Amino acid sequence: MFIQTETTPNPATLKFLPGQTVLEMGTADFPTPESAVKSPLAARVFAVPGVTGVFFGSDFVTVTKEDATSWDHAKPAILGAIMEHFQSGAPVIEGEAAPSGHAEHDGEDGAIVHQIKELLDTRVRPAVAQDGGDITFHGFERGVVYLHMQGACAGCPSSTLTLKMGIENLLRHYIPEVTEVRPVNA
Questions:
Q1: Strand, helix or coil for residue 29
Q2: Structural domain boundaries of the chain?
Q3: I want to staple 62 with a disulfide (CB 3.0 to 4.6 A). Which of 57, 107, 151, 184 is the partner?
Q4: CA-to-CA distance for 15 and 7, rounded, in angstroms?
């Protein structure tokens, strides 16, 4: 098994590409070791000293490390953990995977929220996945769109610029009711 790695805009995060499917559908975010109890793969990666976050996409695993940990030390151990997992035949996530994606929205702004989610799914999420992360809809209130950033996007130095200059401008262009975009911690 050959696992490729790619850098992300977040220097604390690397994207690992095992060359096979990681998740059939959606994404899975594990911001803490405690959140990884249902994922044998995430638990293995969290066993590597210095790992602070694990995120799964369709064909990648994004790993975030603490600042004091060097990639020179962590990367070989993470590669080993991912390789051991896929060779073990264990599932990536045990039981039913919790659906990750956009939050539900009930109310009078349903048509606007539908447009927001459509633009996120077609224009934003594919580009963000290339960088090892995901951005999902969290809410819409009085012209403000609240988005949840995951994987490489969470804590990325350029995420504020991405939100304000990229996503906010895109949404405001297509949906005049949108006045601002803000991140949330879910």
A1: strand
A2: 4-88, 109-183
A3: 151
A4: 6
